[in-house]
């Protein structure tokens, strides 16, 4: 099998303390690559040191980061990194009104990332919580392709972003007992539009729930969804990995399958 983790945070502890162990564990679990996601304007100063042929990166600022309102700084950050080797996406960007966060403060920082995603034709890694209507309004202003990351939204929102040509990515949450609404969406999403992720070091899937997550465990997410959709594990691994390569436009010569 050949799995790819489409969303992790290699700069976060404990993974950053022993990156070689993380890579070894990936190999032991048939995980052939991972995309490490930016959340702050200094993320890549640390995580880019982990560059490998099979480690890719996004560049962006999370909606709950303290600097989300500093548009010029975000613009400079994206400009600095876009075009460098294995920088293949924008984000993690979006809107988050969870627990009363000020969503209006987040909009300018989100839009500057949408502008770069459209300008450079890079997929946007979307973070969205409790802001479906406004997020969709903003997405429709731009000609942007993207990934609905760690999907926990409604089926209706999933249908809307699928109509925009987007991918939807599922994390270890899908293995949680109280996540039937996520499983409903996963059953609906077509095979050619689905990705898998860990969002590590968070959201470890069963049987690791409660422990620190890492890219190796994306194999458990993949196997769970394969069973959910009634598909052979090997086939589903190849489908999701091919989806990642195609959507992220990884050169055919660099593919591991």
UniProtKB/TrEMBL annotation:
A cellular-component GO term for this protein: cytosol
Entry keyword Hydrolase: yes
Binding site for a divalent metal cation 2: 127, 149
InterPro entries: DNase_TatD-rel_CS, Metal_Hydrolase, TatD-like, TatD/YcfH-like
PROSITE patterns attached to this UniProt entry: TATD_2, TATD_3
Keyword 4Fe-4S: no
GO-annotated molecular function: DNA nuclease activity; hydrolase activity, acting on ester bonds; metal ion binding
Residues that, per the record, bind a divalent metal cation 1: 7, 9, 92, 199
Keywords: Hydrolase, Metal-binding
Family note: Belongs to the metallo-dependent hydrolases superfamily. TatD-type hydrolase family.
Name of this chain's protein: TatD family deoxyribonuclease
Organism: Candidatus Cytomitobacter primus
């Amino acid at each position: 099998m050949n799995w790819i983790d489409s969303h992790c945070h290699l700069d976060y502890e404990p993974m950053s303390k022993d990156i070689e162990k993380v890579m070894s564990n990936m190999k032991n679990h048939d995980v052939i690559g991972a995309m490490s996601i930016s959340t702050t304007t200094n993320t890549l100063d640390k995580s880019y040191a982990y560059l490998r042929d099979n480690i890719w990166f996004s560049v962006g600022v999370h909606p709950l980061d303290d600097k989300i309102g500093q548009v010029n700084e975000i613009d400079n950050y994206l400009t600095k990194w876009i075009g460098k080797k294995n920088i293949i996406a924008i984000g993690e960007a979006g809107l988050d009104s969870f627990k009363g966060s000020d969503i209006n403060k987040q909009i300018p920082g989100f839009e500057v990332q949408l502008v770069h995603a459209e300008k450079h034709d890079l997929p946007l890694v979307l973070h969205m919580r409790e802001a479906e209507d406004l997020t969709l309004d903003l997405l429709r202003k731009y000609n942007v392709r993207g990934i609905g990351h760690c999907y926990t939204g409604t089926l209706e929102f999933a249908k809307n972003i699928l109509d925009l040509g987007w991918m939807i990515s599922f994390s270890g949450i899908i293995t949680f007992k109280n996540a039937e609404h996520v499983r409903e969406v996963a059953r609906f999403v077509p095979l050619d539009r689905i990705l898998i992720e860990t969002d590590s070091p968070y959201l470890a899937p069963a049987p690791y729930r409660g422990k620190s997550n890492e890219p190796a465990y994306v194999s458990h997410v993949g196997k769970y969804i394969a069973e959910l959709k009634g598909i052979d594990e090997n086939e589903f691994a190849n489908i999701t990995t091919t989806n990642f390569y195609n959507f992220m436009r990884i050169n055919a010569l660099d593919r591991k399958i």
